[in-house]
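User: Hi! I have a protein structure encoded as tokens and I'd like to know what sequence might fold into it. I'm fairly new to this, so please keep things simple.
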């Protein structure tokens, strides 16, 4: 196997974070050696060069955004989400988005007057999001961003397996997110599903918790980088499809 890495030693932001080649998904789990930690783990994807990166390694650096969120005063969760997604430790796609969605929602909620212990809530949200595997949308039938919105609702309502009065609320939020995501269709785009789930969760916070978060709708700037961009079917599409098509053709 020819090993290729970024010339500056950093991870690729698109496709395989080791070499930048597109990922290929498996219909069933396979045992693979993680190219970063060296441990043998279950894998549902590897790149064309054979590199496999486990979810833990893929999302590990993303956790460093928690301190940034803790001191942010941004009230718009979409603006905050897009700010965080620009950080180099956040890839174009990846399981880190499953934790980022509830964390930006919690931060914006706090900044809009919601009464929560933000530091404690962020740590808990990230921990819960880490349990959602990469590729959950296709393999488990539930998008990790939608579950992230459910995590947000769960933390705010104090929902647990035995809390009968609020047991259904996080599931209803997740269900509402999935309803919106499936209307648009796939394939997956972590930026699109994250934004749609955040919008849905913000509407829930306004209606049921009395906290109104401003939700902007800027055009997407990732379409030229995303091989699977659904372009005009996406409500945020604002890129040049010609640029994206040339990029795909060159691979």
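Assistant: Happy to help. Inverse folding works backwards from shape to sequence: for each of the 251 positions I chose a residue that suits the local structure. Here it is:
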């Amino acid at each position: 196997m020819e090993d290729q890495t970024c010339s500056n030693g950093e991870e690729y932001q698109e496709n395989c974070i080791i070499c930048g080649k597109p990922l290929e998904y498996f219909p069933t789990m396979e045992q693979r050696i993680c190219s970063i930690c060296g441990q043998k783990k279950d894998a549902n994807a590897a790149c064309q060069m054979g590199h496999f990166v486990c979810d833990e390694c893929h999302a590990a650096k993303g956790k460093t955004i928690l301190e940034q969120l803790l001191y942010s005063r941004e009230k718009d969760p979409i603006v905050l989400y897009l700010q965080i997604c620009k950080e180099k430790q956040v890839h174009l796609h990846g399981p880190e988005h499953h934790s980022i969605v509830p964390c930006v929602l919690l931060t914006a909620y706090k900044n809009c007057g919601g009464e929560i212990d933000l530091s404690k809530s962020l740590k808990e949200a990230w921990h819960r999001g880490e349990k959602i595997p990469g590729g959950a949308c296709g393999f488990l039938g539930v998008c990790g961003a939608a579950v992230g919105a459910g995590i947000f609702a769960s933390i705010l309502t104090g929902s647990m397996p035995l809390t009968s009065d609020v047991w259904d609320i996080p599931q209803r939020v997740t269900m509402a997110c999935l309803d919106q995501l499936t209307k648009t269709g796939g394939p997956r785009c972590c930026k699109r599903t994250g934004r749609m789930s955040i919008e849905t969760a913000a509407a829930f916070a306004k209606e049921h918790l009395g906290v109104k978060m401003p939700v902007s709708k800027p055009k997407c700037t990732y379409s030229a980088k995303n091989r699977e961009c659904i372009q005009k079917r996406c409500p945020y599409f604002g890129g040049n499809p010609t640029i994206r098509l040339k990029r795909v053709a060159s691979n």
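A useful reference point when you look it over: Residues 1-8, 241-251 have pLDDT under 50 and may be disordered. Feel free to ask if any position seems puzzling.
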